[in-house]
Write a structure and sequence with these properties.
Alpha-Beta Plaits; two-stranded antiparallel sheet; alpha+beta; 4-stranded antiparallel beta sheet; about 35% strand
Amino acid sequence: MKLIIATIKPFKLEEVREALTEIGVRGMMVTEIKGFGSQSGHTEIYRGAEYAVNFVPKIKLEIAVSASMADQVVDTITSTARTGKIGDGKIFVLDIQQAMRVRTGETNEDAL
């Protein structure tokens, strides 16, 4: 089993969710986050005053899938979330040691 953690631009969330649903992803966790990387923030003008935005709004997706499906999920997120501009995001893939569905007690891949 794999845990895929992806950061994407907020306006891409619905498009990515639809694409993942189409390939069989049955669930994901979504968190609104702020961060910076290469983009390292920007400046904005509000009511005539310029101010620095050091942390950029992003969406963090956490998706648990079987190991055999991980590459397809990564490819789908990559192709759907890509705009070609700086700040498109990052994807990390981690191993999951154990999973359990609280309601039924199902474990590991059955819990996904």
